[in-house]
Amino acid sequence: MSKSREVIEKHLKNAQEHLAARTKLLADKKLDKKQTKRDVTFRKLQALVRKYANRLASLDKLQAVLTDVEQRRAERAAAPKVPKEKKKRVVAPAPKAKGGGKKEKKA
Description:
Number of strands: 0
Helix content: 55-70%
Order of helices and strands: HHH
Structural class: mainly alpha
Distance between the termini: 82 Å
Radius of gyration: 34 Å
């Protein structure tokens, strides 16, 4: 699957041309819309057109997200850097151990 906009647009145009030719052929055979929609080749060509149209739409969404990200990065880079305040760590005293360590064994 190519992610190049030009390639996808070319495939979409090609599929639309084939769909138009198939529609004309079915109209010349004097088939009504119900029979036309049941034609296997017609349905496959419609699916191709939908697939390429959806790919173009998803590329548009991706491009919008990427431009938004670039804009935010530029804003962040242009903003003056504010030094962060270092938090002082408060070290809590260690809890006293109860019982003191090892017990001696009674003989």
